[in-house]
Every structure is written in structure tokens, then in C-alpha cells.
Amino acid sequence: MFSSFSSAIADRFRPPTSSRPLPNTTHASNLATFFCLSRPSPSGPALPPELILQILAHPTRWLLTHSGSAGPIRVVNKDLPIITLRPFTTEEIQTLQRIVFRFRSKDQGFSWDTPNHGTYGGSWTWFEAVVRSGKNDDSDGPASHSEGEDKVKKRFELQRNRHAGTRMDNYEIVFDDGDSRMVELKSFLKEGDVLEFRACARFPAWVNNVDEAKVEVWCVDDLASRGRSH
Predict the structure, then answer these.
(1) 128 Cβ partners below 8 Å, 6+ apart?
(2) Over the stretch 75-126, which tens digit does the pLDDT of each residue have?
(3) Phi, then psi, of 99 in degrees rounded to 5
(4) Separation between Cα atoms, residue 129 and residue 102, nearest integer Å
(5) What pLDDT digit, counting tens, does each position of 142-169 carry?
């Protein structure tokens, strides 16, 4: 059974015959690791395939497939896509493991609503993750509203700024595979769609001051992903 499983993995992920050496990629490294660990050695027996695949699926071996950054940016009374990632492929959606949103921000620092000062109540500056149909998008970069909001498929509110904040605050919002937000996001995300990170402010006096922002998308290697469902 073990040998048949290993053979199946080999057949499905064997690289094409070529005179060129394999590129030094995570996939090539995982493939080599699988074959090394699936064979007995003087130092120990072969590991079970299921254990090897768990090793290959560990976060330390995930692939950073998308990333983008922005800042400093000042947003007044509008929703502004400040980071737009490149379109997703079907394989990336299927192997999506984690999305991380990191940002440092504050509002305008004052308001008439003094009871809410220093809290998140009554705050009219915030951040969103937006799934948008992006068949015509072909690169990273700031998005334009010229396509219209009709291309927006789903909006996720991530975080409000502290009301009348006196200093920049650091935030990190994580969507992990299996949690409710990731499950919902993946249900809307299709090949060619893009993920936007938006800074929002409502009403003329409200200002979303973004010192810096970064978005990272992590996927598991296709070998570990398909192997786990074998």
C-alpha cells in the first residue's frame, strides 16, 4: 500500500523530461523531501505517507503567492482601494491557506462625540477586504473605480479606527483556512477575481490616515494539498 501510494504521488507530480535542471522551488523541494522520507535509511525507517504530507503542509513550507503594500495615504469621505492583488488562479484558490492584513492607522484625531473618544464606537473610518471580479486586471497596483461597484462580489469589514485616536495603532487581521470568513471568501472567489484592501471614511470631517499597509496571501504547495485529499 505504501509503495502504491508513493507511486501515485510520483505519477501525478513527476516533472516533465528535460535536459534543464529543476528550478529551486518549494514544489521541487517538497517533491524531493517526499521521496527521501518515503524510503528507509540507515538512520531510520520510512515515514508513513500521511505523516510526510502533514510535514509538507506545515506553515513553514507555505508559498507566498500574492503580496502588496501601500502608504502613507490620507482618505477623506470615500472608499479607496489602496492595495489590489493580481487575479487569482483556480489552483491558488484551491490551495489558499491564509490571508494576512497588516496596517497602521488612525482617524482625524477629534470629533464632537466625546463619549466615544478612545473607543471603537461611533467610528466612521474603517478597512475592508473586497472580492471583485477582475477578469480585465493583469497586474498588481491601485484599483480604479472606473469599472464600477457592480463588479464587487463581497465586502468584509476588517477593522474600525479608534474614535478620535491620538496615535497610530497597529492592526493584524488574519483569515485562516477553515474559519468562517475564509470559507465565505473562498465561496465567492473565482478564477480571475482580485482581492482589494480598502481604506474607508464616511462624512466630510472623517479622515482615515494610513501610515502603512500590507497584504499577504499564503497557499500550500500543490503536492501537499492534493496528497492530503488522495
Answers:
(1) 79, 155, 156, 157, 158, 196, 197, 198, 200
(2) 999 999 999 999 999 989 988 999 999 999 999 999 999 999 999 999 999 9
(3) -125, 130
(4) 12
(5) 444 545 577 999 999 999 999 999 999 9
Q: How far apart are CA 105 and CA 21, in angstroms?
A: 47
- Taking the C-alpha atoms of residue 18 and residue 25, their distance in angstroms, rounded to an integer, is 16
Residue 79 contacts residue 210 (beta carbons within 8 Å):
no
Task: Tell me the mean pLDDT in the region 155-184.
Answer: 96
% residues pLDDT > 90 (the chain): 57
**Identity (one letter) of the amino acid at 172?**
E
The alpha helices in the chain, defined as continuous H runs, are 2-13, 26-37, 49-56, 90-94, 180-188, 222-228
Helix (H, G, I), strand (E, B), or coil: what is residue 199?
Answer: strand
Neighbours of 171 (CB within 10 A): 15
